[in-house]
Amino acid sequence: MKDRRRDVRLIEENKVVISLMTGEVRLGVPVVFYSLTRDVSMGGLRIMTGASLEAGSRVRVDLTLSRSRKRIQAVAEVRWARGLYAGEVFEAGLQFVDLDPDAEFALMDHIFGGKNGPSL
């Protein structure tokens, strides 16, 4: 089976704070979620979270890269989401839609310049 992924993925856990964008905020629903990455690439993240995110929604991402200790802030679109563990934990794929050049460089350095190297 051919891998359809465009970007090299680094499998690691990083702390990430997900904030719903203003248009996505709903009454009685938290707007900030604390999550962990499952993998990271130049194109986006796969996260595990307690939030039931909807595909197509946009979120703000505040990512702390564990190995390099760099912090990246970006806007991402939820490309897919699915429930795990009886719907109490969710997994979602986020695609970066707004990543400034400094954040892009820090992410590139983290993925390709690290001691452990990328995971294919």
Give a description of the structure.
The chain has one helix at 101-112, and strands at 9-11, 15-20, 32-41, 44-49, 58-64, 71-84, 89-98. With 120 residues, the chain is mainly beta. The protein has one domain: predicted glycosyltransferase like domains (Thrombin, subunit H). It has a 6-stranded antiparallel barrel with strand order 2-3-4-7-6-5. Strand 5 and strand 6 (71-84) form a beta hairpin. The longest helix has 12 residues, at 101-112. The relative contact order is 0.23. The mean pLDDT is 84.
Helix-strand layout with pairing:
Layout (H helix, E strand, L loop, with lengths): L8 E3 L3 E6 L11 E10 L2 E6 L8 E7 L6 E14 L4 E10 L2 H12 L8
Antiparallel strand pairs: 1-3, 2-3, 2-5, 3-4, 4-7, 5-6, 6-7
Please tell me the overall pLDDT: 84
CATH homologous superfamily label = predicted glycosyltransferase like domains
Total strand segments = 7
Task: Assign the CATH architecture.
Answer: Beta Barrel
Our measurement of the CA-to-CA distance between the termini, rounded to an integer number of angstroms, reads 14 Å
Please list the strands of the largest sheet in the order they lie side by side: 2-3-4-7-6-5
Total discrete domains = 1
Beta-strand content: over 45%
